[in-house]
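Bumping with the actual sequence this time:
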Amino acid sequence: MERLRRLPIRLRLALAFALAMGLVLVLVGFFVYEGVSGGIDRSISAGLTARAGDISALIRQADSGLQENAQTVLGNEDESFAQVLDLDGTIVDTTPQLLGRPILSPSQVARVANDPVWFERVFIAGMEDPARLLAVPVHAQDRSLVVVAGTSLEGREETLSQLLTRLMVGGPIALFLTSLLAYGLAAAALRPVESMRREAAVISAAEPGRRLPVPPSKDELARLGTTLNEMLVRLEAAMARERSFVSDASHELRTPLSVLKTELELALSRERSAEELRDAVRSAAAETDRLAQLAEDLLVLARSDQGRLQIRSQDISAIRLLGDVRDRFERRARDAERCIVIEAAPDLEVKVDRLRMEQALANVVENALRHGEGLITLQAKAVNGDLEIHSLDEGPGFSPNFLPRAFERFTRSDESRSGGGAGLGLAIAAAIVEAHGGSMGAANSAGGGAEIWVVLPGLVR
């Protein structure tokens, strides 16, 4: 079986076709042989029945015998013969080729006393081939007789032998020719696959845009080629995102590392007072925190890409969830002379991973504090069994070019909402929401300001 699997698929298809075709030819040959054999047997039986009737009529006339009328009654004397026996097995009349010997034994004659009896493949003295006999009881010449009509099976055996020879010779030839045809058809059908394989072997990341050749037919191979080309498009897009991700991550890591290195080098460049050293360490610690946060953000995204972002859901009221997020930013909002308000029904409960969802909503509020203006409103409501959370501010809103890429990694608004940050906040929020089976969206409010919303399907309790 293992060796068979190693064979080329076109050869395996041809072998499978040959096996199936061989089975079909055997079955067809069997049915043809049986059909011809049955037809010959029926013809012989009908002939014997007619001859037995003719002989019975002849002996009832009692004016002539079988020897004088053999040609008339039997037709072909070489293969057909007849005999009339008394009930004790004595020959009353017979055709010449039987050499005056009774065809049936006394016990066989006794079986024909009342009903006709067939005797199959009987060997008769003086004849080389088996014969078929029909014995019929007849009352003639004032006594009970048995008429036996027979015919040699030589012609039957010869006809069937010739048929079997032709089947044995023609069958393998037909099988060989159809197998060659099957191999050719399989090779022609798989030629587009081989063409796609050769092209796929030379496609590399250094040559983006190359595609597999798609056959002009509208069959399964054409759909396969189209699907593989679509996969190549997705892979190229994924590779482009990966390259961009690595480049952006390297850039984001380089900035705090450069600042950290500069602070340490300045602290060591000359004698410093204790206060100056504390300032340098404080600045280095801030950059270290920034590096740690960036590393944690990248880890969250990496786990999300691998489908390993763990979610531990628990029941929590929506107003409490939003309240914890507001408490985290309350001091910062107050320092910026801004306010965060919550709008949620007191009895609205949801089942989410509290820490992960707080992280996602915190990134949304962070975005509103950093880039927006005025009042920040956090709304939670149940819509057809789904939980919707909206964040609205009163700032200038998102730039039109930024909206389609709002949740992509390392994406910042470069117009009215420019500012610090690595551009990972909304991407991380989207990853957490997607891990809950939800989705996020962003738009500019009709009355001004930015709006970001979260939809969590079926999580309302």
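The tokens above came from a reply further down the thread. Residues 9-61 form the longest helix (53 residues).
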